[in-house]
Amino acid sequence: MMIPQLPLARPAGPRLIVLLLGALLPFGALLGAATTLAAETGTVAPAAGTAEPVRVQQAWIRWLPANLPAGGYVTLTNPGDRAVTLVSASSPDYGSVALHRSLTQNGTSRMVPVARIDVAPHATLNFASFGYHFMLMQPRVPVAPGDHVPVTLHFADGRSLTASFEVRKPDAGAPPAKGMAGMPGMPNMPNMPNTAGTSH
Ligand SMILES: [Cu+2]
Predict the structure, then answer these.
(1) How many Å lie between the centroid of ligand 1 and the Cα of residue 91?
(2) In the chain, count of helices (H) and strands (E)?
């Protein structure tokens, strides 16, 4: 791991060194976790030991033809003692990724933007179960079933996590859970091949 050099142009007093160390520690933690983020599952780097990593599983996108907005779904597990709050998401493959929730009001189903999605301590939140989804719009590249799209989840505490979302056909459900694959200490998920069984 590369350790940034302290600036030599001016003397670094003890206070400055403390500040620099404080800034570097979470950076180092991010670097350490980065190797696990490429697979479908991943973890959020702990912020200086204050929170345990969030686990992401069954990340997938329900593809629709004609560049219609696509719904994205995940299962988030918070193993920590504090709630974590998802506040936004982004993807290099889409111009816009919004947090949405489907509601049924007066017998009519509609979806509304949401500003945050909380995951309680020691809880698992399956997006689909609560009507939550990512609304992915304005694709920047051709996206088709069988593809994998990176989506970065941004949390209220400043942490973020990039997971690979499997693009599936409109009539497909969530991909099967990967068992223990998302557990810390088992980062050796292969670079995901197309396992969706599509013939696209
Ligand atoms: Cu929506």
Answers:
(1) 16
(2) 1, 10
What CATH number corresponds to the domain at position 88? 2.60.40.1890
| CA of 61 relative to ligand 1 center, distance in Å | 12
Report how far ligand 1's centroid is from the alpha carbon of 192 (Å).
26
Number of domains the chain is built from: 1
- For residue 3, being part of any structural domain is answered with no
CA of 133 to the centre of ligand 1 (A): 6
CA of 132 from ligand 1 middle (Å) equals 8
Q: Is residue 7 part of a domain?
A: no
β-partners of residue 154 are 88, 160
The Cα 121–Cα 82 span in angstroms is: 5
Distance CA 166, CA 144 (A): 10
- Averaged pLDDT for residues 100-125: 95
Distance between the two ends of the chain, CA-based, in angstroms? 40
95 within a domain of the structure (yes/no):
yes
CA of 165 to the centre of ligand 1 (A): 16
Structural domain for 150, as ranges: 14-170
**Does residue 184 have a pLDDT over 60?**
no
Q: Supply the pTM of this predicted model.
A: 0.65
